[in-house]
Amino acid sequence: MNKYLGLLHHPILGRKDEIITTSVTNLDIHDIARTCRTFGFKKYFIITPVQKQHALIKTILDHWNTDMESSYNPDRTSALSYIEISNSYEDALTRIKEIEGKEPKTVATCAKFQEETQSEQEVCQALQVDNTPMFLIFGTGWGLHASITDRADYRLHPIYGDASDDYNHLSVRSAVAIYADRIARSL
Predict the structure, then answer these.
(1) Which pLDDT tens digit goes with each residue over 132-142?
(2) Which residues of 7-42 are buried (b: 16+ CB within 10 A; e: fewer)?
């Protein structure tokens, strides 16, 4: 099964449940690309409609693709080659369909899901039946907006730790790594 990952920056929930657009961060670019490379994702889509953010991403990628930097840290350069910038969630879906020749199944993540969720193993088993590509989508800010989660084909169980006070607020980079590892173990 071919796996794709998307980090969505719009539409995202804001602090007061409003729709916002979040900023791309340098750490998310690097760390999530390295996770995608490690766990065999075909592409990592950074999804934002903000053209200045596209320019920032391209500047960072261009820096690591220079001869001096790519020879200094070829592993990072290799991981960053998995990144594709997308204007929207729909554009990323279209791009995956172009690559794969069929629609991917979308798999949403959220720390707040309480109902109608599946385990990584259940999702992987379902997708392996007809070798359907997976598009694993993560949100920034306060999470994915309902316009994304409501139309997802699958919604993964939230990640819960051992905190006795029900604290559940991982960085998106940490959540990506945990889910990617769980998916790899479910295949």
Answers:
(1) 999 999 999 99
(2) bbbbbbbeeeeeebbbebbeebbbbbbbbbbebebb
Q: What letter represents residue 164's amino acid?
A: S
3 φ/ψ angles, rounded to the nearest 5 degrees: -115, 140
Tokens of 159: 């990640």
* pLDDT one-digit tens code per residue, 16-65: 999 999 999 999 999 999 999 999 999 999 999 999 999 999 999 988 87
Where do we find the tokens 């599946």? 118
CB-CB contact of 61 with 22 (8 Å) = no
Q: Which CATH architecture has domain 3-186?
A: 3-Layer(aba) Sandwich (3.40)
CB 41 within 8 Å of CB 66:
no
